[in-house]
């Protein structure tokens, strides 16, 4: 596997990051993850825009222009012969003697890799997945895509140990989002409900596309918070993320969502998303 590190493409085994990297010592960095279908990056402009915002919020200089990022991404996809999967990349504040204050002359560390993965024909997309709710223990700037993911690691491991595939994080009785996904329910009257953007959640890029597709498809949408109790009573539930697109959620805390099968609105939205992602990018 070929990865990218600080200006070079090289075999994974040869890609080494210095011991004093602030990403390693402090989790001082931000990242992005983008879905790849038929060798094309899905919604890349929106991901690069979110990267720019994350970097500027934590005051790490952006090492590349959007055009440079795009060409590096294209090259890593080509070099790995990637058709379907995921591109991950992160930027840390760089290497310096351990000290909390920003280093004066550190250069950001840039690392990028690809992961091949079946997104379109994933079994989870057919059967749906189970989620469990856990307290949202994260910091108050969840809109920044920080590489400090300890709370998500613990939440998702708790979900796994409870037999589920994702954790839905709960703050003051309301679901914020998934450990690594945006959370949606469908009301008994057929409206999609999703939490509005704020510092409490990551602005999901797949969420954004899904909202556009649901408007175009004439599906009612309510951007508001929902409680765990409302989710238990929902007609359907689903999640979105760049590496999964749209996945049905068929059980929450061990209770089946409606009849415990993926619902029609979720199926329709997944179909619309797949159509969008499969269409050749407009010039
Ligand atoms: N929320 C969180 C906390 C996430 O980690 C992710 C995945 N990056 C998402 C939502 C979904 O965002 P996106 O659709 O941009 O992948």
Automatic annotation (TrEMBL):
Cofactor(s) listed: pyridoxal 5'-phosphate
Enzyme kind, highest EC tier: transferase
EC code(s) of this entry: 2.6.1.42
The protein's name: Probable branched-chain-amino-acid aminotransferase
GO MF annotations, alphabetized: branched-chain-amino-acid transaminase activity
Known function: Acts on leucine, isoleucine and valine.
Pathway: Amino-acid biosynthesis; L-isoleucine biosynthesis; L-isoleucine from 2-oxobutanoate: step 4/4; Amino-acid biosynthesis; L-valine biosynthesis; L-valine from pyruvate: step 4/4; Amino-acid biosynthesis; L-leucine biosynthesis; L-leucine from 3-methyl-2-oxobutanoate: step 4/4
Entry keyword Repressor: no
InterPro entries: Aminotrans_IV, Aminotransferase-like, BCAT-like_C, BCAT-like_N, Class-IV_PLP-Dep_Aminotrnsfr
Pfam families referenced in this protein's UniProt entry, alphabetically: Aminotran_4 (PF01063)
PANTHER family the UniProt entry points to: AMINO-ACID AMINOTRANSFERASE, AMINODEOXYCHORISMATE LYASE
Catalytic activity: L-leucine + 2-oxoglutarate = 4-methyl-2-oxopentanoate + L-glutamate; L-isoleucine + 2-oxoglutarate = (S)-3-methyl-2-oxopentanoate + L-glutamate; L-valine + 2-oxoglutarate = 3-methyl-2-oxobutanoate + L-glutamate
